[in-house]
Write a structure and sequence with these properties.
The structure is a single chain. The chain contains 13 helices and seven strands. With about 375 residues, it is α+β, with helices and mostly antiparallel strands. The longest helix is centred in the middle third of the chain and has 36 residues. Strand 3 and strand 4 form a beta hairpin.
């Protein structure tokens, strides 16, 4: 009962400690695409979504009681870490040593990060780029948390050193005041051969900043005569921490890019642009591709009001007939039909339809492909 109550308290506390806060997570995720290599240029439009959804994982904490555990790890509560500076990288191994309840209560940040990378890889492998993007936004958040040192320690809020409130003072309020001074550019990407080892390595490296942040907080508080809400306090805190804070932000953005790139390569480096599909390739299954570009519109990198939708009709569906009836329609977010793109019999093969949204308001839309044996729906974003 005590462990269960403690776990509930930890989840409740985690609601208030969002790694880097909204502003910080947005900046980290927004800059991740700056590190994408040239072969991933088609994915640069992800910047818009990754930025807008950088804190979605935090928002889920209120509905999902298991989400809070994914955002931190009190790694210094593990005796093996205190003695060796390391813990086992597999969750099964650490649970065998300490028990499931203990492991959950310390947070499962590294394993949730590893799992999210696996989910991105799986989505890439079936060319479900929308789902890959969804998981990539979560990955951005978890990596951001892993590069915020106070998410890697039991003294996450200074409660063990008489510095209550340091968490939000450093990660949210200070960052909100000085985010415009956090600037950095991208460089060469890195393929990660061992994802679990890589994730734990940056956690170990970032843990080294815990004491440095706490010391800076004490010094800034002293400089401001004990007033931790004053501009004087935050000016001093920023002065003492800005150099390595910018490094932490930069490392977080690059790490997100490294892991997305690794997932993409491990999935076979699928091309986003459906124009790469060979129209003469024989298709064994029905399939509705994600439209390209997406998002699209005047304010997107493509600058186009037109997007392409591709779909495939399986040979099996026409074995006993020359064709099958196909319906392809576009709907708005309220489910109202916007336009019918296809409504006719078609034979097996690959098809492409160009859709112009020039006369539509900006927003989220859906398109649905229906045949006698297949139904699929995809979402697109139109930005004017």
């Amino acid at each position: 009962m005590k462990n269960k109550l403690f776990g509930i308290i930890l989840v409740f506390i985690s609601f208030f400690f969002f790694g880097w806060g909204y502003v910080g997570h947005n900046k980290i995720s927004s800059n991740a695409t700056n590190f994408f290599p040239q072969e991933m240029n088609d994915f640069l439009y992800w910047k818009v979504y990754l930025t807008a959804h950088a804190s979605d994982a935090d928002s889920r904490k209120g509905d999902d009681p298991t989400e809070g555990y994914k955002h931190y790890i009190d790694i210094d509560n593990y005796s093996i870490f205190l003695s060796s500076g390391r813990i086992p990288t597999t969750m099964d191994s650490i649970i065998t040593m300490y028990g499931l309840s203990f492991v959950n209560n310390q947070g499962i940040l590294p394993w949730s990060t590893i799992s999210t990378v696996d989910s991105i890889t799986s989505a890439f492998s079936i060319r479900d780029f929308e789902k890959a993007l969804f998981y990539a936004a979560d990955l951005g958040h978890y990596v951001g948390d892993g590069n915020m040192p106070l998410h890697i320690t039991k003294n996450y809020n200074g409660q063990l050193s008489g510095q209550n409130g340091v968490h939000s003072r450093y990660e949210s309020t200070m960052i909100g005041k000085y985010s415009e001074q956090i600037n950095y550019s991208g460089d060469s990407i890195q393929y990660i051969n061992n994802v679990p080892k890589y994730i734990f390595q940056y956690l170990y490296q970032n843990y080294a900043y815990v004491d440095t942040i706490l010391i800076a907080d004490k010094n800034a508080k002293s400089f401001a005569n004990g007033n931790t809400s004053s501009d004087l306090y935050y000016q001093k805190l920023w002065e003492l921490t800005k150099n390595y804070t910018i490094i932490l932000f930069r490392n977080a953005s690059k790490t997100i890019a490294n892991l997305i790139y690794t997932a993409w390569v491990n999935a076979g480096s699928p091309e986003l642009n459906p124009s790469a599909i060979n129209d003469n390739t024989k298709i064994k299954d029905f399939y509705l591709w994600q439209n390209y570009p997406n998002p699209f519109g005047k304010t997107t990198p493509s600058g186009n009001h037109t997007t392409s939708i591709r779909y495939s009709i399986s040979e099996a569906s026409t074995l006993n007939a020359t064709s099958t009836n196909i319906s392809l329609k576009v709907y708005d977010i309220l489910g109202r039909e916007v336009e019918t793109l296809v409504n006719k019999n078609q034979s097996a093969g690959n098809y492409k339809v160009n859709f112009s949204a020039n006369n539509l308001p900006a927003g989220i839309y859906f398109y649905t492909l229906i045949s006698d044996k297949f139904v699929a729906t995809k979402k697109f974003i139109y930005l004017k």
